[in-house]
UniProtKB/TrEMBL annotation:
One of its GO terms (biological process) is carbohydrate transport. The keyword Translocase applies. This is ATP-binding cassette domain-containing protein. Residues 333-355 are annotated as: Disordered. The keyword Translocase applies. Signal peptide: none annotated. InterPro entries: AAA+_ATPase, ABC_transporter-like_ATP-bd, ABC_transporter-like_CS, ABC_transpr_MalK-like, ABC_transpr_MalK/UgpC-like, Mo/tungstate-bd_C_term_dom, NA-bd_OB-fold, P-loop_NTPase. Keywords: ATP-binding, Cell membrane, Membrane, Nucleotide-binding, Translocase, Transport. PROSITE patterns: ABC_TRANSPORTER_1, ABC_TRANSPORTER_2. Gene3D superfamilies: 2.40.50.100, Nucleic acid-binding proteins, P-loop containing nucleotide triphosphate hydrolases. GO terms for molecular function: ABC-type transporter activity; ATP binding; ATP hydrolysis activity. Residues 4-235 form the ABC transporter domain. GO terms for cellular component: ATP-binding cassette (ABC) transporter complex, substrate-binding subunit-containing. It comes from Herbidospora solisilvae.
Amino acid sequence: MAGIEVTTLHKRYPDGTVAVEHVDLSIGDGELFVMLGPSGCGKTTTLRAIAGLERQTSGDIHIGDTLVNDLPPAERDIAMVFQFYALYPHLRTRDNLAFPLRAEGLPKAEVEERVAEAARLMRLDALLDRRPHRLSGGEQQRVALARALVRRPRAFLMDEPLTNLDAELRADMRTEIKHLQGELGTTMVYVTHDQVEAMSLGHRIAILNKGRVEQIGTPLEVYDRPASLFCAAFIGSPPMNLIEVELADGKLRSKSGLALTPPPNLPLDRSLIAGVRPEALEVTEPGADGTVPGRVVSAEWLGDEIIYVVDHGGQRDVRVRMPPTVRFAADAPVGLRHTGGPPPVYDASTEELVA
């Protein structure tokens, strides 16, 4: 196992396109580290640079104590799992797993031992004699993971490996990957655009945008205190409500009069935007204490909760997460109030967290 250090990584293609502007990462030995961001943010290019599949324009990459800038992928001692499983269709599961070991020229007994161990870990024992066309999507993904496992690399690199699975299988495979990483204690770098995967899997998450790292933190840190308006709008489903506010009478107030508790050390010399999670707001009967008048624009009924979109006379509508027992029809008048603690507050010009 090994940690991974990425320093001032930059990638520019010959046509002038900049895929990675500036990325610094310090990934701990045995950490499950997730790179999260929208399409085109540079996360896959960064992963491919770590793997040696892309040559960076500048910057350094260390795997363990080894500077790998000039090493080909085969000499970096990593294993990569792709979005597409890339299994050999004419080979049985057993031979798909054994292929990279046979290519290294390992003794037959060791190959069989490693294949058996990987099959046990990924629960493939009953599937060893099947070819890929006889496997489900989830089974094929487990074979792809097992094929990476047999190599016993210093680090695993995973590029959106669950994208092609349906929702139920994705949930199952998230559990499998997290359990596997915990059992092996190996370093994993996992790329995804799915925030649910990132939040449920990662020890830490790096949020990328336009080739730069916007924030690195634990799932709780990036959820509770996003470092920028981009992170605030990207993390959470629904995302944070971003509300223009000003300090008045000891409260942060929106244009509609919605009152929020201000955080300490709030700068007063700039335009401010408060980030309010949907669960930190409440809709109730109109006229209730501490509420501002609002109107239900729409309601999303999700079984265990209802997401209300409420027009409160502010700059934009807000989303409110409520239990399914609180029911209002579309266009119904409601009262809206803030029930949480001090929200994170951002500078409207720099879009960065200020308090």
